[in-house]
Specification:
Helices cover 34% and strands 26% of the residues. Helix 4 links the parallel strand 8 and strand 9.
Length: 304
């Protein structure tokens, strides 16, 4: 499928279909647990970030893998409905798409995720549209298709395209990806696996030494810590009464990328990400609560 035009952000990574429901409290084994309120939405770190950016007026393209099953069609339809260019989605024949079931506990502000990855072959380097990549301002990847992500990051750097990584889990190749990135924002889980302790500043220093200009660690309700050049940035999360934290990290990254392509500094971009993530937590599912462009502009006081 041909791309529909020039995209400012090239996304590469996971695309999922999420079934999300509320529960009063996570149950013990071998009991029945009633769900109240359920939603079905597209999900995945990169896919949700592209959906958010598209809502905010940033043209986006996504490269990833889906199956030729019902869920694959729903994933692609959800992205197209957001205005995301899906020409980079590769359909694996006879394969299942990524799926997640998520139980949210609003009373405790937490959720539990059960998921199955795509059963088809991961996206391959030769399946990446390099022409579209080289025309973008930023490459945003979650590193889940690591071979393709490393290849794309190398090509992006050669072309002057900023590389932003959403590092959720410390997997093979992620530190190599950090070496190719301009901005590397990790989860608390990633940071703990990297350092073996609970010191996010230490994780930032280790990652910064690999070469990224901006390194951060998100800390959930505790906020985030980051280093940009020699400047440390540390802020608490925006205080909200969370219903469901699904998608918060994805939209945090979308907010950061929005600021990046608008030419904002790291502190402004990170703060937008934190605010947007807090808004997402107010509704069930990772995309329902993505703030509108009007709300984003009103909050930032910026007409960009």
């Amino acid at each position: 499928m041909a791309s529909t035009g020039v995209s400012r952000v090239f996304g590469l990574g996971q695309c999922s279909l999420d079934h999300v429901g509320k529960i009063d409290r996570y149950p013990p084994p071998d009991v029945k647990c009633e769900l109240f309120e359920t939603v079905i939405q597209g999900g995945g770190p990169t896919a949700t970030a592209m959906a958010a950016l598209s809502r905010w007026g940033i043209s986006c393209y996504i490269a990833g893998v889906i199956g030729d099953d019902l869920f694959g069609g729903m994933i692609e339809t959800s992205l197209r409905a957001e205005g995301v260019d899906t020409a980079g989605l590769v359909i694996r024949k006879g394969a299942a798409s990524q799926f997640a079931f998520i139980a949210a506990e609003p009373a405790l502000g937490r959720r539990t995720i059960f998921w199955q990855g795509p059963t088809g072959k991961a996206l391959q380097p030769d399946e990446i549209d390099l022409t579209t990549l080289r025309r973008a301002q930023a490459l945003h990847t979650d590193g889940l298709c690591i071979e393709a992500a490393l290849f794309a990051a190398g090509k992006a750097r050669q072309s002057g395209v900023s590389v932003v990584v959403d590092a959720g889990t410390l997997r093979d190749g992620m530190l190599d990806l950090a070496r190719l990135s301009d901005c590397f924002i990790a989860s608390e889980t990633f940071a703990r696996a990297l350092t073996g302790d609970h010191d996010p500043r230490r994780a930032c220093r280790i990652l910064s030494d690999l070469g990224p200009h901006v390194v951060g660690v998100t800390l959930g309700e505790a906020g985030y810590v980051a280093i940009a050049g020699k400047q440390w940035i540390e802020k608490p999360a925006y205080k909200v009464r969370a219903v469901d934290t699904t998608g918060c990290g994805d939209v945090f990254h979308a907010g950061f990328v929005y600021g990046l392509v608008q030419g904002w500094n790291a502190e402004e971009s990170l703060d937008l990400g934190a605010w947007a993530a807090a808004q997402v937590s107010l509704q069930l599912g990772g995309r329902s609560g993505i703030p509108t462009l009007a709300a984003l502009k009103a909050r930032s006081g910026n007409g960009s």
